[in-house]
Amino acid sequence: MEGTGVPLVTPFDGKGDIDESKLAELVEWIEERGVDFIVPCGSNSESELMTVEERSRVIEIVVEAASVPILAGTGHPGLRETTIQTEMAASAGVDAVLVVTPFYFSHTQEVIADYYRNLADLASVPIYLYSVPKFTHISLEPETVQRLSDVENIEGMKDSSGDLELFGREINSTKEKDFHMLVGAGGIYAQALEMGASGGVLGLANVAPEGCSKIYELYRKGDTAGAKVLNESLVELNRGVTGIFGVSGLKAAMEMRGAPAGFARSPRQIVGIEEKEALQNLLREAGLY
User: Fold this and answer.
1) Which of 90, 115, 181, 184 is 20 to 30 Å apart from 234, CA to CA?
2) What is the pTM of this model?
3) Of the options 3.40.50.300, 3.20.20.70, 1.10.3720.10, 3.40.50.720, the CATH number for the domain spanning 3-285
């Protein structure tokens, strides 16, 4: 996976059911604005609130609707559930899977490494590691990443720590390997590309897909300064939709831009009037509203 990926939100209807028609429309809306690959059932997809069967259905719809590669989120707290979800995704036709570190209980780095090695042996599609410590409270250490980069069928990693120093250490530990490092923090996309990232999986790309794609395009053309300037213009929007206002705010901002994002699922709630006004201001400041 290279370039700009989007951890696609999942449109739900007012009853909390997956809105399948809106999901297919959303894939088209996103693709028209230039992303390089799509990630259904990532953190911004509310996958933690879906059943195994629902996640599988979301992945099937996205695969059918998309013309770009698909990196599907299939991670669960345990190996058995993750293996089942991964094979269901493989059957749907995904190109690779993104597997979050096993969470809920704490595990040592060696236990986590064994988990990924076992999954790599069982999976019929390539595996991408996924470290998102702000949600899981677990971080993959660079030494662990280095060891896992040698495992057949593990092709890359998404780091959503937002820690550039850590990301740099991971890059350095795998730079001699055929291993794709993806950044998961939209506020540092251009900097991560300059450090050697293959691309990014950015929640920001749900609401600003053309801007995120342009950052990558500028970098690829050698305009590193231009990429950084554009990235800086999106930092506050990124902070709003991936931090302050969360998934509900992200979906509200997308709807303001005409994207069929639908409702968030309970226990998340619809953003209020003040939050909507703040989001509108962020979109205006970014030149998107």
Assistant:
1) 181
2) 0.95
3) 3.20.20.70
